[in-house]
TrEMBL record, chain A:
This is General transcription and DNA repair factor IIH subunit TFB4. Keywords: DNA damage, DNA repair, Metal-binding, Nucleus, Transcription, Transcription regulation, Zinc, Zinc-finger. Component of the general transcription and DNA repair factor IIH (TFIIH) core complex, which is involved in general and transcription-coupled nucleotide excision repair (NER) of damaged DNA and, when complexed to TFIIK, in RNA transcription by RNA polymerase II. In NER, TFIIH acts by opening DNA around the lesion to allow the excision of the damaged oligonucleotide and its replacement by a new DNA fragment. In transcription, TFIIH has an essential role in transcription initiation. It comes from Trichoderma ghanense. It comes from the Eukaryota. Residues 86-103 have a biased composition (Polar residues). It is found in: Nucleus.
From TrEMBL, chain B:
InterPro entries: C1-like_sf (IPR046349), Ssl1-like (IPR007198), TFIIH_C1-like_dom (IPR004595), TFIIH_SSL1/p44 (IPR012170), VWF_A (IPR002035), vWFA_dom_sf (IPR036465), Znf_C2H2_type (IPR013087), Znf_RING/FYVE/PHD (IPR013083). This is General transcription and DNA repair factor IIH. Residues 34-44 have a biased composition (Basic residues). It comes from Trichoderma ghanense. Component of the general transcription and DNA repair factor IIH (TFIIH) core complex, which is involved in general and transcription-coupled nucleotide excision repair (NER) of damaged DNA and, when complexed to TFIIK, in RNA transcription by RNA polymerase II.
Length: 365, 477
């Protein structure tokens, strides 16, 4: 593509600007947004997000955007929207075996006439996001409102597929083949992909594994997952940001969503290297046990299926895979106690150990 | 009869041949009869084209053109599909692995049939292997041993930190391979390194073997018997030709399964064989899978109060952030590790989660015929448009014409669509590859209404137990 324009300055800028694909995952749990309504309504949030999207697009012509809604029980594309109208018009085209020329405005959803004061791509994204959100809300049933969580794993997976596809479209065919075999972890990706999650609800424990799968895939493809948590307890997202070198922002004041977005999350993964980004000082890495759902920091792990238990299961039988487990000297409590005694002895000798440590340390320099 | 690397991937092979050829990789004895080495060398030097003159990536350069001048990409797609179509039966695997990687550093590795040399290539792939191994098996251990000058050489000790292994490997990059390899010495050293491996973990040896000989101090059969007794499994990737003792070694130590010995045909195949062993091995017998319950700590990341620094107990280096042992409160700077004070295994729960996809694999997706293709116009996950279905009138005639043409490209969907059998969503080939190789999630199952998704989850659900999935997946084939 760049070869078409031979002028030198063009090539230089093209080399510098590898496109950046921003995927926004918007948590649209109606209940959570209703709770937030006093400080920030969904409509306000969306207009803030659109400003953020426009800012991202304005950085470079090559930049791309995708917006996905993580709804209570499904994940839906907001932009680019899944085209439902073309599929319904497809049979009419087939009838004559020839493509019937139809004006775009004759379709069911006529786009508004382009405003002279608006960049067409901005308007396109805006109308697409609004219309898909409206259909999404119209399809939401009363039962859906009971849920406090969202389909985060699906939204993340969709976003990753999109980034992967964009990366493959820009890279040559032989690199896609070598990417298929899971290697070259060090080469920079052709697209700087990142995912910004706007989270308002809790993490759903049943989605732990798919969410984590998506997180590892993101880390593998050098996609950063950034999160701005307006409300709710999003433990998985905290771990996701940590694993993918993303930014986790806990918005104390949801009203300032746009400020958080513009000041905290606008730099792409490349620009971030030279900026001081908000850090997460503490990350909660405790896990829930499979047997009672208790949050534990010390647990028992089945060596076959890696299920986590808060105490050795009955009959030493794994609840997930049914294997009879050897309660070795390691896991069983009686074996732990004598070690504790040893440890106490060591603590008594602790001063001696420290001295030896320093004694070996000092001569070196 | 002594066909070798150079002649095997010939330029003028059709796509069909490539498929046949590569599919038989698992059984190298059929694909590559034993060839004595000297004649092979001669051929490379004198006869025919040099290795670098031949196109290795035949599926790229030899895409057959169709009558209208369009490239037929079916072969390319078939190659990609072949890589990801595998048995998705959830098998019990040894997730906690102890593996010794044995690299041949003998004279045979100076050969240039793999570019730039066997030695350099093996070392660079070994680095890739180390990275991939720890990505796939975060709670496993690795050691590296070399075979040079008739002795076994300790490259790196058993450990769980990829950076250490990579550093040690880099030191060997500048050195030249020399002397004879000794299989027995290397195996004895591996036996020693794996002696202390706990019973719930696997004990594995992976040998990259370039030579066709082994200069051993004693009877190697005794060593093999000892390996079998200590339930150590050996896999070998050969670089020149099949060697009887390696075949015996692999089949004896793997309960008669001889698929663990493979001979690489070219660079790509070598890489494929090498990295295939990053996947945890299947437990075949009861003895191989002594399961036990392990006590582990899941510490949270904490910052030293007030921006101060303190020393970590593992490396005695000052650091701001760290993890406190959940039992004794000692500070360690990186995970996974063992608490230096009380010996508790400290890991992140994400390390465990990283291995789950081996235990609950994602089912393969199936090809979609044109008859079912009409209901989707774009890939469910990436929104890229699909080719339009052909008009129904011409469908029958076209079907006749196309059927023989499409037949050789096994596993390729004629409509360019691939379907998840659980959620019935259609995906493109790129998303198919991505979902199975990287994400291990089905985008469709993860993003459709949960009420429908609840009864049959795609094997990646937290509560999805192996049994129901097993039944489901057995059908898949």
């Amino acid at each position: 593509m760049d070869a078409v324009d031979v002028s030198e300055h063009y090539e230089v800028t093209a080399a510098d600007n590898s496109p950046s694909l921003l995927s926004i995952v918007l948590d649209t749990n109606p209940r959570a947004w209703a709770a937030l309504d006093s400080s920030l309504s969904l409509a306000q949030a969306i207009s803030n997000i659109l400003v953020f999207v426009n800012a991202h697009l304005a950085f470079s012509n090559a930049n791309q955007v995708a917006v996905i809604a993580a709804h209570v029980n499904r994940a839906v594309w907001l932009y680019p929207a899944l085209q439902r109208t073309p599929s319904s018009t497809a049979p009419t085209k087939d009838s004559s075996g020839d493509v019937q020329m139809q004006d775009a405005s004759s379709e069911a959803n006529p786009p508004p006439p382009p405003s002279a004061n608006k960049y067409p791509q901005f308007a396109q994204i805006e109308s697409s996001v609004f219309s898909s959100l409206q259909t999404l809300m119209a399809e939401t049933t009363v039962q859906d409102l009971d849920q406090l969580t969202t389909q985060l794993s699906g939204a993340l997976t969709l976003a990753l597929c999109r980034i992967n596809k964009a990366a493959q479209a820009l890279s040559s065919s032989d690199t896609t083949l070598s990417n298929a075999a899971p290697v070259n972890a060090t080469a920079p990706p052709p697209v700087k992909g990142r995912i910004v999650v706007i989270s308002v609800s809790d993490s759903d424990p049943s989605q732990y594994i798919p969410t984590m799968n998506a997180v590892f895939a993101a880390a593998h493809n050098q996609v950063a997952i950034d999160t701005i948590a307006l409300a709710g307890d999003s433990t998985f997202l905290q771990q996701a940001c940590f694993n993918t070198n993303g930014i986790f922002l806990k918005a104390a004041n949801p009203r300032g969503l746009l400020t958080y977005l513009m000041f905290g999350l606008i730099p792409d993964t490349e620009a971030r290297a030279s900026l001081i980004t908000p850090t997460h000082d503490t990350v909660d890495f405790r896990t829930a046990c499979f047997c009672h759902g208790r949050v534990v920091d010390t647990g028992y792990v089945c060596s076959v299926c890696l299920s986590i238990f808060c105490s050795p299961p009955e009959n030493a039988e794994c609840l997930t895979c049914g294997t009879v487990l050897a309660l070795g000297n390691y896991g069983a409590k009686p074996a732990v106690l004598p070690r504790k005694k040893k440890k106490k002895k060591k603590i008594a000798n602790g001063s001696g150990r420290e001295e030896t440590g320093s004694a070996t340390g000092t001569p070196r320099p | 009869m002594a066909d070798s690397d150079g002649e095997f991937v010939a330029d003028d092979m059709s796509d069909d041949d490539i498929m046949d050829h590569t599919v038989t990789d698992g059984d190298p004895s059929a694909a590559r009869p034993k060839g004595p080495k000297p004649p092979r060398k001669k051929r490379d030097r004198n006869g025919g084209s040099k290795a670098w003159e031949q196109s290795r990536r035949t599926w790229e350069t030899d895409l057959p053109e169709e009558s209208d001048g369009m490239l037929n990409l079916a072969g390319y797609e078939a190659e990609r599909r072949r890589r990801l179509l595998r048995d998705t039966t959830p098998l019990q695997r040894g997730i906690i692995r102890h593996l010794v990687l044995v690299l041949d550093m003998s004279f045979a590795m100076a050969e240039k049939d793999l570019l730039p040399t066997r030695y350099r290539l093996a070392l660079s792939y070994a680095a890739a292997f180390v990275r991939e191994y720890f990505e796939q098996n975060p709670i496993s251990q690795l050691a590296i041993v070399g075979m040079r000058d008739g002795v076994a050489l300790r490259v790196s000790d058993m450990g769980g930190n990829p950076a250490e292994h990579l550093e040690r490997l880099r030191e060997y990059e500048g050195q030249d391979p020399s002397g004879n390899p000794s299989l027995q010495n290397a195996l004895e050293m591996c036996r020693g390194a794996l002696f202390h491996a706990p019973s719930h973990g696997t004990r594995e040896v992976l040998i990259i073997y370039g030579a066709l000989l082994s200069s051993d101090p004693g009877d190697i059969h005794d060593t093999i018997n000892n390996l079998v007794a200590e339930r150590i499994r050996v896999s070998v990737v050969g670089l020149s030709a099949q060697v009887a003792i390696c075949a015996e070694l692999c089949s004896r130590t793997n309960v008669g399964d001889d698929s663990q010995y493979n001979v690489a045909m070219d660079e790509t195949h070598f890489k494929e064989l090498f990295l295939a062993l990053t996947t945890p091995p299947v437990n075949r017998t009861k003895e191989q899978s002594t399961s036990s319950l392990l006590m582990m700590g899941f510490p949270s990341r904490t910052l030293a109060p007030g921006g101060t620094t303190s020393y970590c107990a593992c490396h005695s280096q000052p650091c701001r952030e760290g993890y406190l042992c959940t039992r004794c409160g000692v500070k360690v700077c990186r995970l996974p590790s063992e608490c230096p004070a009380c010996g508790l295994t400290l890991i992140l729960s994400t390390h465990l989660a990283r291995s789950y996809h081996h235990l609950f694999p994602l089912r393969n997706w199936v090809e979609v015929p044109w008859s079912e293709a009409a209901r989707s116009s774009a890939c469910f996950s990436c929104q890229s448009p699909f080719p339009e279905p052909p008009p129904p009138k011409a469908n029958k005639e076209k079907g006749k014409d196309e059927a023989p043409a499409k037949a050789p490209a096994k596993g390729v969907s004629e409509s360019g669509r691939y379907k998840c059998q659980v959620c019935d969503s259609h995906f493109c080939i790129d998303c198919d590859v991505f979902a199975h190789m990287v994400v291990h999630n089905c985008p469709g199952c993860q993003s459709r209404p949960q009420a429908a998704a609840a009864p049959v989850t795609d094997g990646v659900e937290a509560n999805g137990n192996g049994h129901t999935n097993g039944g489901m997946m057995a059908i898949d084939g």
